[in-house]
Design goal:
Helix content: 10-25%
Distance between the termini: 9 Å
CATH architecture: Roll
Largest sheet: 8 strands, antiparallel
Strand content: 35-45%
Radius of gyration: 16 Å
Length: 169
C-alpha cells in the first residue's frame, strides 16, 4: 500500500471507558459525515508552506475519491500541480453548536490528480458534482475549470477532540 505520510498510531486519550467506533461502523460514520456537509477544507503545500482552500465537493460511494472543481487560474490549481499530496477535512460543527463534545471531524489524506476530459471517470465525476451541487452546474462545466480527484489513502475520524480512529483504504 502506498503511504502518503508517516504512520500515526490512533489512540484514545482520556477516560478508559470510552469506545471508538468499530471498523465496520466507521465506513458508515465517514459516509454520513461526508453527506452532511457540502463544503470542506483542502490543505495543499508549496515549498513547505501550507495553504488551505474552502471548496464544494462530492465523493464516490466507496469513499476512495473526493472530487472537486477549480479554475485553472487559481493558486489552488498551481499548488496542486506542484505537489499532489493533500489533506481534506470535513466536520459537523455547524450541526452541533450547543455541545462541542459532539463535534466530529474527518481528515482524508492522499493525492489529488487532475482528471482529464478524455478519461473514463471524467463524466461520472462531473455528474457526482452536479448532482450534489446543481447550483454550480455552469461553473463545473466551464472550459476554464478543471476536475480534480483526491485518491484517498486513509481517513482519520476524530470525536470528542481527542479520540482518533484511522481507516486505511
Amino acid at each position: 500500500m502506498q503511504r502518503d505520510e508517516p504512520i500515526i498510531e490512533s489512540r484514545v486519550i482520556g477516560e478508559k471507558n470510552k469506545i471508538l467506533p468499530q471498523k465496520s461502523n466507521l465506513k458508515v460514520t465517514l459516509k454520513k459525515l461526508l453527506k452532511s456537509s457540502l463544503y470542506g477544507v483542502l490543505a495543499t503545500q508549496y515549498k513547505s508552506q501550507p495553504y488551505t482552500s474552502l471548496l464544494a465537493y462530492a465523493f464516490t460511494g466507496d469513499l476512495r475519491n473526493i472530487i472537486f472543481v477549480t479554475p485553472q487560474t487559481t493558486r489552488k490549481y498551481k499548488l496542486l500541480n506542484n505537489c499532489k499530496r493533500v489533506a481534506f477535512q470535513v466536520d459537523n460543527r455547524g450541526n452541533s453548536p450547543k455541545n462541542i463534545m459532539h463535534i466530529e471531524s474527518i481528515t482524508a489524506t492522499g493525492q489529488a490528480n487532475l482528471i482529464k476530459f478524455e478519461s473514463p471517470e471524467y463524466k461520472s465525476f462531473v455528474k457526482l458534482l452536479i448532482k450534489r451541487h446543481s447550483y454550480l452546474k455552469e461553473f463545473i462545466e466551464s472550459p476554464s475549470c478543471c476536475i480534480f480527484s483526491i485518491n484517498v489513502v486513509r481517513y482519520f475520524h476524530v470525536i470528542r477532540f481527542q479520540e482518533v480512529s484511522e481507516w486505511p483504504l
